[in-house]
Amino acid sequence: MKRNKLKKRVLPAVLAASFAISGLSLPAKNVLANEEIVKYHQELKTPSYIIGTWQAPEGLSKEEAVYAFLQSKANLFKNAGYEAKDQFKIIDQFNDKETNTHHFRTVEQYNGIPVYGSQQTIALDDKNKVTAFFGKVTPNLARSIIPTDAKLGEDEALEKVKDSIEDKIGEVKSYDGIDGELVIYPHNGQKHLAYYVTASTSAPAPGYWHYFVDAATGNIIHSYNSIAELTPSSPEQPEAQQTASFQPAPKALPTVSEPVQARGMDIFGTLQSFQAVKDPETGTHYLFDGTRSEGVHTFKANRMPENAFIILSALLGMTGFEVESRNNFFYDPSAVSAHVNAGKVYDYYNKVHGRDSLDGEGMKLVSTVHIGSKWNNAAWNGKQMLYGDGDGTRMISLSGGLDVIGHEMTHGVITNTADLIYENESGAINESIADILGAFAENKTGEDLWLLGEDIWTPNTPGDGLRSMSDPASVYIGGYTESGYYPDHYSKRYVGELDKGGVHINSSINNKAAHLITDGGTHYGVSVTGIGKTKAEKIFYRALTHYLAASSDFSQMRQAAIQAAKDLHPDQNGQPSAEVKAVIAAYDAVGVN
């Protein structure tokens, strides 16, 4: 699917997703009026979704139809009397040829400044009927009085963030990426003019940092590390640490290289064949596969005491130490596993969903192995995938888990689509979709499909996994929930500040819905007839890429899945298709309305 990407800086980026353990949702009520279904955000009292067939006036372009729709709903958005073109900005759009529909992403703005977290999705059919709206809209925004003259410069804000990060993790020699943007940041009932700064680090500790710096005072309003890890950190599982061993400086990949077929053993001792490149002058081989768009590039961190990821060159695009071999056989099993599995996940998205890499435009896939010392985690830091070696008891090298790599790479897809904020319910949906599509990418059958990380988890204990999507309540997580186990129903969700509001804990609720949609079953007295993996994976991918927005909660996740199912499996003789019925029943079964 070709996308017409307008210039945008993805606002709520918050993807640091881990494969491990949030989500407090705001209930809302349903209203049926003029053949529209409107669900309201309980706190804001503005629509969180609108489902209907609003017809645009004749002669309007698709873009004009979007603004006309938003203008027609000004009363619902509590911004009557103000122009929709002033309040909303189109940041992305694409045409879906499979269903002949057009899809837009918009962001709310104040005096031309984007409002953090207030993104929307709007779907139109071929006759300019708006069939769905999802998102978050700030009421009375245009009537608000918000100073927009920044007294603090962007460079000053970046320095404050760097100082804060280094206070937490130590000196950062080089950032994988750091960027700032002026936004309106609603927080604790106030609207601040702030710099939204995101920073990605690989060392001395992995991080995907999100900071909001008051543009008037320079104070840090809020911050968090949304590193997309496989598991949450705990006293028993420390953050990645660096050893004191000396390592040589990294070298850049040769600008002239020859593609070669290479081999190597993965972490399970299986011989793998894969693409690599050779320097024709030195004969040195490197783990770079140029056959998949901009490439699959695998590095090693070597557990250095200083930043192991210095930017090598514009050709590399990312950071790391090259994995080298004097011939076409590679002897680093963790690197071989990461390299091969990244290629498999790329192929899954390309063949099943027609997606060209994480951004849909051929983005280079960068992985780095040997992060820290015995680190029991894997992560997406907004720029690349990072994999620990495990401690050998709780986990083995995490790059060996195809669903683990699928999980982390899906976080990259999420960053480039809905960009679900990595806190509370939107963060739990973020984690869940990474689990769901990561499992589908692994493409196992039976119960093995629904166990996450089973290949790298507790190597001496067969038949278990980090999480179970088919039976979440069978996996113990400690004192986060009343039962001590992952919740399998919305009524049992975790509500608190730990795990960034339960991003891993509450992901299991949506995971169970995905299992029921796929395989069927009876859960809390609700029976679901499964529709199979092939249909289910398409529904969840479409819900993510077409309907979910940055602040989506569980209720919006349910409706997004219903809309996706309706798109792919339209009503028959005025009755919902079996696929739509399965989605509705599954979310009923897990208590999401």
Automatic annotation (TrEMBL):
<keyword id="KW-0479">Metal-binding</keyword>
<keyword id="KW-0482">Metalloprotease</keyword>
<dbReference type="Pfam" id="PF03413">
    <property type="entry name" value="PepSY"/>
</dbReference>
<keyword id="KW-0106">Calcium</keyword>
<feature type="compositionally biased region" description="Polar residues">
    <location>
        <begin position="230"/>
        <end position="246"/>
    </location>
</feature>
<dbReference type="InterPro" id="IPR001570">
    <property type="entry name" value="Peptidase_M4_C_domain"/>
</dbReference>
<dbReference type="InterPro" id="IPR013856">
    <property type="entry name" value="Peptidase_M4_domain"/>
</dbReference>
<keyword id="KW-0862">Zinc</keyword>
<comment type="similarity">
    <text>Belongs to the peptidase M4 family.</text>
</comment>
<dbReference type="InterPro" id="IPR023612">
    <property type="entry name" value="Peptidase_M4"/>
</dbReference>
<dbReference type="InterPro" id="IPR050728">
    <property type="entry name" value="Zinc_Metalloprotease_M4"/>
</dbReference>
<keyword id="KW-0645">Protease</keyword>
<dbReference type="GO" id="GO:0004222">
    <property type="term" value="F:metalloendopeptidase activity"/>
</dbReference>
<feature type="region of interest" description="Disordered">
    <location>
        <begin position="230"/>
        <end position="252"/>
    </location>
</feature>
<feature type="active site" description="Proton donor">
    <location>
        <position position="504"/>
    </location>
</feature>
<protein>
    <recommendedName>
        <fullName>Neutral metalloproteinase</fullName>
        <ecNumber>3.4.24.-</ecNumber>
    </recommendedName>
</protein>
<dbReference type="Pfam" id="PF01447">
    <property type="entry name" value="Peptidase_M4"/>
</dbReference>
<keyword id="KW-0732">Signal</keyword>
<dbReference type="GO" id="GO:0046872">
    <property type="term" value="F:metal ion binding"/>
</dbReference>
<dbReference type="InterPro" id="IPR025711">
    <property type="entry name" value="PepSY"/>
</dbReference>
<dbReference type="GO" id="GO:0005576">
    <property type="term" value="C:extracellular region"/>
</dbReference>
<feature type="domain" description="Peptidase M4">
    <location>
        <begin position="264"/>
        <end position="414"/>
    </location>
</feature>
<feature type="domain" description="PepSY">
    <location>
        <begin position="151"/>
        <end position="221"/>
    </location>
</feature>
<dbReference type="GO" id="GO:0006508">
    <property type="term" value="P:proteolysis"/>
</dbReference>
<dbReference type="InterPro" id="IPR027268">
    <property type="entry name" value="Peptidase_M4/M1_CTD_sf"/>
</dbReference>
<feature type="domain" description="Peptidase M4 C-terminal">
    <location>
        <begin position="418"/>
        <end position="592"/>
    </location>
</feature>
<dbReference type="Pfam" id="PF02868">
    <property type="entry name" value="Peptidase_M4_C"/>
</dbReference>
<keyword id="KW-0378">Hydrolase</keyword>
<feature type="active site">
    <location>
        <position position="408"/>
    </location>
</feature>
<feature type="domain" description="FTP">
    <location>
        <begin position="86"/>
        <end position="136"/>
    </location>
</feature>
<comment type="function">
    <text>Extracellular zinc metalloprotease.</text>
</comment>
<dbReference type="Pfam" id="PF07504">
    <property type="entry name" value="FTP"/>
</dbReference>
<dbReference type="InterPro" id="IPR011096">
    <property type="entry name" value="FTP_domain"/>
</dbReference>
<keyword id="KW-0964">Secreted</keyword>
